[in-house]
Specification:
eight-stranded mixed beta sheet; binds 2-acetamido-2-deoxy-beta-D-glucopyranose; Rossmann fold; alpha/beta
Length: about 325
């Protein structure tokens, strides 16, 4: 009897895993756009590993100038080499960007504004999921600053170049990476920059992702008339290094996700779709998953203006900078 049970479990487990795998593979949408990007420029934050690296490679294949950004020199130069070797496109740069530092974001943006002539695509892809919940030297929650506030500041500082580049027939595009986990997040303006405040250590991750969606909507509202569209992409469950800070447990999650759900290349498809597809170029303030428009938690749109004001205060944007970006 016991041996029968063992045999059943032994046979059933792989069968279930194979079914999950097959289901996932059959529903993973692939971006089918054939659009070329010759003469275009794209920035991919976190474009040095995981989903970001796949997005960067795709843009490079299509002829774009691609700037990849991350805070690690070695990872950056390795990724640079990989992209150039695999795509034959040499118009690729790596620049240091530490999203957990307002100073680093300002330096990066300043450098882009002085060295680049155009910016067609800004892919706010970098993200961190961490059990360590602490304050950065800017006095903000680490996870929130990397995933949300850092990208908020970066986007606003780069808007003058995005607006200059966008044309009525071809708006420049901002793509934010969100997550299904945004459904669990709250926009809790009072407590969002605190550490150790929430019981669940990784809760700020959910919060950061709902903020991204909210920010997109508010930015869309404020950009009326500019040839810039802003949308969010949900990569789905993907096996990447984002789980690394979770230690051994993270390694297990990564490999299970990789096997059962999406590879980074598959996870990159929706962001690529939002960046390139003709239809998504005419939409703004929307969230996409599996290359389709998807539902947003109603909480994300509850009070987008309040989150905006609070974010402006925390990242210390001046009135002059705001005017330059949004006038
Ligand atoms: C690199 O890309 C930019 C923008 O797409 C373009 O203007 C420039 O000519 C390219 N440079 C080279 C060496 O191809
Ligand atoms: C972060 O939140 C705390 C508590 O609400 C506040 O005292 C602090 O000033 C905030 N930090 C910044 C940079 O505003
Ligand atoms: C994208 O992120 C930026 C910066 O975090 C934010 O200002 C913008 O509203 C977001 N857009 C979307 C569509 O989520």
């Amino acid at each position: 009897m016991a041996s029968l049970l063992v045999v059943t479990v032994f046979l059933a487990t792989p069968a279930i895993l194979i079914l999950v795998r097959l289901y996932q593979k059959s529903t993973n949408a692939i971006c089918t756009s054939k659009k070329r990007l010759d003469g275009r420029t794209a920035i991919v934050t976190g474009g040095t590993a995981g989903i970001g690296l796949e997005i960067a490679k795709e843009f490079a294949h299509r002829g774009a100038r691609v700037i990849i950004a991350c805070p690690f020199k070695q990872e950056g130069s390795d990724a640079l080499k990989t992209i150039i070797e695999e795509t034959g496109n040499k118009n690729i740069s790596f620049k240091l960007l530490d999203l957990s530092s307002l100073k680093s974001v300002r330096e990066f943006a300043g450098n882009i504004l002085t060295t680049e002539e155009r910016l067609d695509l800004l892919i706010n892809n970098a993200g961190i999921s961490s059990l360590k919940d602490f304050q950065t030297k800017d006095g903000m929650n680490f996870i929130m600053q990397v995933n949300y506030y850092g990208h908020f500041l970066l986007t606003i500082l780069l808007l003058p170049l995005l607006k200059k580049t966008g044309q009525p027939s071809e708006p420049s595009r901002i793509v934010n990476t969100s997550s299904y986990l945004h459904w669990f997040g709250r926009i809790d303006n009072e407590n969002m920059n605190k550490s150790g405040y929430y019981w669940i250590p990784n809760y700020q991750y959910c919060n950061s992702k709902i903020c991204m969606v909210s920010f997109s909507r508010e930015l869309m509202r404020r950009l009326k008339g500019a040839n810039v569209v802003v949308n969010s992409a949900n990569p789905g469950t993907v096996g990447t290094g984002i789980y690394k800070p979770l230690g051994l447990c993270g390694l297990f999650i990564k490999n299970m996700c990789y096997l059962l759900f999406k590879t980074p290349r598959e996870g990159a498809q929706t962001a690529i779709y939002v960046a390139l597809d003709e239809k998504t170029g005419g939409m703004s303030g929307c969230l996409f998953g599996n290359c389709k428009e998807s539902l947003v938690s109603p909480l994300a749109y509850w009070d987008t203006a309040k989150l905006w004001e609070e974010s402006v205060r925390l990242v210390q944007l001046t009135d002059k900078e705001l005017e330059l970006s949004l006038k």
